[in-house]
Write a structure and sequence with these properties.
The chain contains 10 helices and 13 strands. By secondary structure, the protein is of the alpha/beta class. A hairpin with a 2-residue loop joins strand 6 and strand 7. The radius of gyration is 19 Å and the shape is globular.
């Protein structure tokens, strides 16, 4: 056990009960009996159902109240569960089955269903795409926002933080890394907040409200295991048949630190590996903050114009 492992874990576990604006388990929005548009949200790694609320201003700007959103949610992936307890084969298999069940249920009510897959949540969808009934697949359109790579590289900082606060869990190394705007020059993804401006509108978005973060020593921290993340992605890919032909809009952050400086062409090559029909929107920002309101509105506009894939 590293020098400060216990202190970090204690603060993290306590933070799982904190008040947060979006990081929670609320997984349904709108009235399915009145709405004409249905959306299904699939969170990414350590994401949760409530994160879709960050995008609701974009939904209301485009559709008013005429939409229904269901998020993928299981107790095994609750906002109140430690990250390291979530990701095993049994839980992921349950997640896959829940996607199939949820989409099948939605198809009974709606003729067109738009999936919003966040980051690595896209790989959960492709893992089950060939198990979803054709009659359901024929109603689907897809948006992949904050597009994530299919493999994450190990950081040179990992050994530093592992020695500081890390621990081993089921053969994976977990560690907490800091988020602070002062260290964005080291890693663009380590910001703590975003000063957003669009026209006359100004707002500050806080990562603490949006993702799994906790405070210790006046600094924001997050737990991760690169090996476990890569195992999850590969577990999904091994189950997938690709490329899939579901029409898709892909939102990519050009400065996404998780792509480690890959060019647009290199990113597009990965996208084309899994999608046979897609339109890519590149935005000059980082992974999380590519989901600011004007970008999500642009995605919704493009999704509305996608053809429905008639299987």
């Amino acid at each position: 056990m590293a020098l400060w492992t216990k202190q970090f874990k204690d603060h993290y576990l306590q933070s799982l009960q904190d008040y947060k604006s979006f990081y929670d388990d609320v997984h349904e929005y709108g009235n399915p009996d009145k709405a004409q548009r249905a959306f299904y949200f699939i969170p990414g790694f350590n994401g949760v159902a409530g994160q879709i609320r960050f995008a609701i201003p974009s939904f209301t700007a485009r559709y008013g109240c005429n939409f229904y959103i269901r998020s993928l949610h299981l107790d095994e992936f609750s906002a109140h569960k430690p990250t390291w307890d979530k990701y095993n084969a049994e839980n992921i298999d349950k997640k896959h089955q829940k996607i199939i069940v949820d989409l099948s249920e939605l198809s009974e009510r709606f003729d067109n269903i738009s999936i919003i897959a966040s980051s690595s949540g896209f790989y959960d969808f492709i893992a089950v795409a060939d198990q979803i009934p054709e009659s359901v697949m024929a109603k689907l359109r897809l948006a992949w926002v904050a597009c994530a790579p299919d493999c994450s590289e190990r950081s040179v900082w990992e050994p530093v933080f592992y020695r500081m606060n890390g621990f081993d869990y089921h053969s994976d190394q977990w560690f907490a890394y800091p988020n602070h705007n002062w260290i964005k020059c080291i890693n663009r993804e380590c910001s703590a907040n975003k000063k957003w401006q669009y026209g006359r509108q100004k707002k500050i978005f806080y990562k603490y409200d949006l993702e799994s973060r906790f405070y210790l020593g006046g600094v924001l921290w997050a737990y991760v295991s690169i090996t476990r993340y890569n195992w999850i992605i590969q577990y999904n890919i091994e189950k997938a048949g690709f490329p899939i032909d579901t029409p898709c809009v892909v939102l990519v952050a050009e400065k996404d630190g998780y792509w480690y400086g890959k060019s647009k062409q290199e990113i597009q090559t990965v996208i084309n590996r899994y999608l046979s029909s897609s339109k890519t929107l590149f935005r000059n920002t980082t992974h999380l903050w590519v989901t600011v309101p004007q970008n999500i509105t642009a995605v919704l506009e493009e999704v509305d114009n996608l053809p429905v894939n008639k299987c």
